Amino acid sequence: MQNARLSLFVSTLLGFLLPAPAAWSETATYRFVWQGDNGYAMTGALAFDASRVPGRFVREADAMCFVIEGTLEGEPIGRWALGMLNEQTSWRLFFDPVLSAFLVEGQGIRMPQAWNMNGAGDDCGIGGFGFNLGNLGQDFCRDNRVIVESRVDPYAPFPAVRDDGFRFPTDACKGPDLLSYLTE
Q: What is the H or E stretch that residue 151 is in?
C-alpha cells in the first residue's frame, strides 16, 4: 500500500514538473539550394518533428512540410509541395539531420530521393515538376519527361542548412494540425 501511494505521488509530481508531450516536440526546418547543370537550380525546404524521427534518417513519412521550386537561368519552371502528394506520386526522402544533408548515390540507399519523380522521370504529371536522385544522376522532371540537361553527378553532395524561421507556402504542409506553418 505504501509503495502504491509513493508511486502515485511520484507520477503526480512528475506530471506537474515535466512538460506535456506536445511541448516535447521539436520542429526542425532545413532549407536547401541545389545547383543542376546548364543553368538549372532548385530551392526548397523540409520540416519534421525531430523528437519523433524513429531512426537516424528523416523519411518521407516524417516530413511535416516540404516544398521545391525549380528554375532555369533564374526563371521559374515548376514546383512541387507536400500538399500535392497523392496515390500516384513518387515520394522517397532520405535526409540525415546529423550531417545536414540529403543522402546521395553511394550511401547505401537505392534512389534515395524521389520528389514527384520516379527513376524514369515519366510520372511528374503534365504541367508537373519533380526531382530525382538515383544512380544515373540528380535531375528534374517536367511534363512527364526527364530534363537531361539539368543532370549532375549522382554522388554530388546535397547539403541543407537549418533555418527554423523559414515560412512555408500554404500547400507545403500536411493537414490542419500544422496551421502554424501556413503563411498564405
A: strand 145-152
Strand order in the sheet with 91-92: 91-92, 113-115, 129-133, 138-142, 145-152
The three-class DSSP label of residue 163 is: coil
The CA distance from 97 to 106, in Å, is 18
Q: Which residue has the cell 537516424?
A: 56
> Which helix or strand (DSSP H or E) is residue 3 part of?
helix 2-17
Q: Tell me if 46 sits within 8 A of 162, measured CB to CB.
A: no
Cell of 176: 490542419
- Containing 162, the helix (H) or strand (E) segment is strand 161-162
pLDDT digits (tens, 9 = 90+) for 70-90: 999 999 999 999 999 999 999
- Most confident range (mean pLDDT) of 25-29, 32-36, 52-56 is 32-36
Whether the pTM exceeds 0.85: the reply is no
DSSP string, 82-117: GGG--TT--EE-EEETTTTEE--TTSS-SS-EEES-
